[in-house]
Design a protein that fits this description.
This protein is of the alpha+beta class. It has one domain: SH3 type barrels, CATH 2.30.30. Helices cover 25% and strands 28% of the residues. The strands form two sheets. Strands 2-1-6-7-8 form a five-stranded mixed sheet, with helices on one face. Strands 3-4-5 form a three-stranded antiparallel sheet, covered by helices on one side. The chain starts with 5 loop residues before the first helix and ends in an 8-residue tail after the last strand.
């Protein structure tokens, strides 16, 4: 068995290069080109996630946000991104570390990656879960800026085959 953790390296590269650079394009002066748009699913209790508590209560495990037409102040850092979005007409700013992202999709480009939470993210979630009382998950799907959920036709890249078992 290899001593080099190739699966973890590939996932880190996807987070820190592919996703970060796609977000940098979106944050540029021209915004998202053409019909590109992003669905970004992330762990809401992950270390470094900053979001309104009302949203965290509504989505206690994971949340999907859509970056398409109505977002603002997209800031892309080396380890996280921050973006302004509207939820039910209420503006909010979210700060999401790349390690909290579990899925990134650009349906227009037919590109999607499914990612496992990083070890740091998983440990932070475990600690937060121990500190919070258990709440039932809402039945409603995550809000996506009022835009209809599109049927995914993208090829999903699964990295399970590279993980050490």
């Amino acid at each position: 068995m290899s001593e080099i953790p190739y699966g973890a390296l590939v996932e880190r590269a996807l987070r820190e290069v592919v996703i970060r650079e796609a977000l940098r394009v979106a944050a540029g002066a021209d915004g998202l080109p053409g019909e590109h748009h992003f669905y970004i699913r992330f762990k809401t209790k992950a270390l470094g996630v900053d979001m309104p508590e009302s949203l965290r209560q509504q989505y206690p495990d994971e949340m999907t946000v859509v970056l398409r037409h109505r977002f603002w102040d997209l800031e892309v850092g080396d380890n996280h991104f921050a973006v302004g979005l509207s939820f039910g007409g209420v503006p909010a700013t979210l700060r999401i570390p790349y390690g909290a992202i579990t899925r990134f999709e650009d349906p227009y480009a037919e590109f999607a990656v499914q990612l496992a939470p990083t070890a740091e993210t998983t440990e932070a979630i475990r600690v937060v879960a121990q500190e919070l009382p258990a709440e039932p998950a809402p039945d409603a799907p995550p809000e996506t800026e009022g835009e209809p959920e599109e049927t995914a036709t993208a090829d999903v890249v699964s990295l399970d085959q590279f993980r050490r078992k």
